[in-house]
Design a protein that fits this description.
Blueprint lengths: L3 H5 L5 H12 L5 E2 L3 E2 H39 L19 H13 L19 H6 L15 H6 L4 E3 L6 E3 L5 H5 L2 H4 L6 H11 L7 H22 L5 H28 L20 H4 L14 H26 L1 H8 L2 E5 L7 H9 L4 E3 H11 L3 E5 L6 H18 L11 E4 L3 H14 L8 E4 L5 H10 L4 E4 L1 H9 L4 H5 L4 E5 L1 H4 L2 H12 L6 E6 L4 H6 L8 E5 L12 E7 L5 H15 L4 E5 L3 H13 L4 E4 L5 H13 L3 E5 L14 E5 L5 H8 L9 E7 L15 E3 L7 H12 L3 H16 L2 H4 L2 H14 L10 H6 L13
Parallel strand pairs: 7-12, 7-13, 8-10, 8-11, 9-10, 11-12, 14-19, 14-20, 15-17, 15-18, 16-17, 18-19
Antiparallel strand pairs: 1-2, 3-4, 5-6
Helix pairs in contact: 4-13, 10-11, 10-13, 16-17, 17-18, 20-23, 26-30, 30-32
The structure holds adenosine-5'-triphosphate.
Length: about 800
Amino acid sequence: MYPSLLRRSKFLSDQLRTRVFIRLMGGGPRSFHGGLNKWQWKRLHEKKAKEKEKRLLDQEKQLFQDRMRSQIRSNLAGQSHPNLNPDPNKYNPMSPNKHLKALADRFMKDGAEDLWNENDGSLKPPSDEQTEFVGTNQQPGSIHSPVDLRKLISEGRHVSQNRENGFNFVKSRDYSMLKDSGFESGGDSTKPLVRRQRKFRINESSSSDDDEDNGFVNDKVKNFVGDSWNERGGVSNLRNVSDFMKNRGSETVKQRRFQRNESDDDEDFEGGGDRRGRSANDIGSRAALGKYDMKKTRRVPLKELEKNDLANEVELIRYELGRKKKFAGNEGDKEEEDSILSKKRFDECGLSPLTVKALTAAGYVQMTRVQEATLSVCLEGKDAIVKAKTGTGKSAAFLLPAIEAVLKATSSNDKPRVSPIYVLILCPTRELASQIAAEANAMLKYHDGIAVLTLVGGTRFKDDQRRLESDPCQIIVATPGRLLDHIENKGGLSVHLMGLKVLVLDEADHLLDLGFRKDLEKILDCLPRERQSLLFSATIPKEVRRISQLVLKREHAFINTVGVGCVETPAKIKQSFLVSPHKLHFQVVHHLLKEHILQAPDYKVIVFCTTGMVTSFMYLLLREMKMNVREMHSRKPQLYRTRVSNEFRESKCLILVTSDVSARGMNYPDVTLVIQVGIPYDREHYIHRLGRTGREGKDGEGILLLAPWEEYFLNELKDLPLEKFPLPQIDSETNFMMEESMSKIDSSVKEGAYHAWLGYYNSIREIGRDKTTLVELANQFSESIGLHKPPSLFRKTALKMGLKDIPGIRIRR
Ligand SMILES: Nc1ncnc2c1ncn2[C@@H]1O[C@H](COP(=O)(O)OP(=O)(O)OP(=O)(O)O)[C@@H](O)[C@H]1O
């Protein structure tokens, strides 16, 4: 396992040997400019990225205000504004067309190039001819594989065309042409060549998230759309695109790229210090630095010409939407669009026959779209970040290539001294880890000698260690905290991890959140750098795309099966929201459940609450109201959680009241309704919670219950198809029963719920900033749970929360 020199050295202790080995494998810490280590370096740049994000948000806010002003003006002028929804019962989510227009406006604003990051996902080809151009072998009318037109066009010469499955991914590029194109002599010749080449590498990174890249890509896409659209009055045949690319000539393109880089060169790098003249290698790990080693000022005002081109691109997206609507008229096609399955079968894609046999046994014959889109890339060993809607089979999409990697590694002749762990899958919750391990085991049904181990909190650490020693495993599914405990406990796990081939982050955006980041960074430090990393989630915000460089190699694929301009939630989930004062929330939940049970005899409902203590309160209340409920949150012991999770998976006619521990990844089949009480932490939480229903392309329903002051959150969901749900009439008998039931709940539970509620909303920026209002609202909540006098807080807690001298807060003596 160790290099022989290291193995033979008698002078090194085991621990030191491991450390030296980690350094040799490239995993250890290193220092950066200004004496920073790589994580400090990374955080520094994250901070800057956040500031940038904030500036953009301000721009968006400005736009929104402008729009509101114009609506008000037109109202005053007696005209009905097109954006005003005439139906007062309907929340005013923008129609797709209006949303597009708003998007176009945003994109056209000076300095909004960054927003193009959103578009680095795939566009579906507008016509079969286009499909042909990008090198797919799909038949007309077949399921349309997402194709990243922007990337394709920008990289016409370098696209790797995978005719097998019709998806295209970027290969690493040859930069020698830059020299040939006269780039060398064009710029400031006093600046070192190495540096300029490095900049090109940044721009040309396979991830099109780069602002520079976007600028470059946009130029070409926009020009293409502009020319071909105007000529033909619609989206033109992509063969013309190819002609266009040729006619356009690479000169223009090179020139543009050259211009961008010229201006870049005049700016300092972020992170301080003049790094000119340093080679790429001097700057540190590419994987660690990612895209943060870029120049400071990246905004270039858009030219007038580009505005037209942007509008044309928007037209292209509009065309896509129009085409979708057309599909909607045709039932057969619609079904095909709604289905998560593609036409490709598992036995066609080079998987081991024993795996295919196991898949068939589990009922998997055809791949889902995300599986089709990712499998070939992942099997090639490339790094990838994958976005696909909830319930579309992402777990199998990463498990299959991971299993193949194990098979390949075990079949090689090298017989390592320490049995290596080849695959590490990290996920945020214990239940999800067990679920993934179970799915992996189902796929390994016919493979002898490959074992899966779960390492999660809430179980005995010693048991884990015993299992690790007695049953060597090749695949570990873990939550970050427990894995880190093992690594830090020096039980030898680090040595086993030295042979790691594949790292998977399921729910990657969540794992890269601040809550998990520190653990993750420490874990990454112990993993070999030569590995394949796969990041999967249904939501990948822009910020996460940037920070994903922490894990991924620079040349990674971004596979987005959601598609630009498409709704991020499954089409078959009916989404509504309901606004009611706090004091009615529990009655409303009870009413919604009763109504649903009447309509769906095989009901299976999940009620999400904001915190564990509020979950507990809701559970007790509904139980008192004679409903068939279970509770699930992090305050419950693991054995209980596992039992409830299994029971809910298997049952019908059951209600699960839960906190966000069940929000991500959990695959409870046939959930008929998801109710979210109170604002979710953010838009991503909303999407994941909602995604517990309507899985595998099935029907589902989601209701978001808000207090009037929480309505602002709807703004974050304005592109999702939420409709307003009328406030139900609660009869006096229910009110009476509710009061009775509430009075039976122990006051310690109520106090805990109040404290937790306060803590949760205090952590939400929009409300946490205004402490006085927060306390007023908390006191309303307190009344709604039957506490007429709000419970007191420990002085220390009040201080920590910034609530010490706020009127309405009582301090415990
Ligand atoms: N090829 C397939 N054929 C049939 N069913 C499949 C296939 N792939 C996955 N499934 C089923 O689809 C369901 C959802 O899969 P999975 O839990 O992997 O979704 P997901 O995309 O990871 O969702 P989430 O975003 O919520 O984590 C599961 O019940 C799984 O068994």
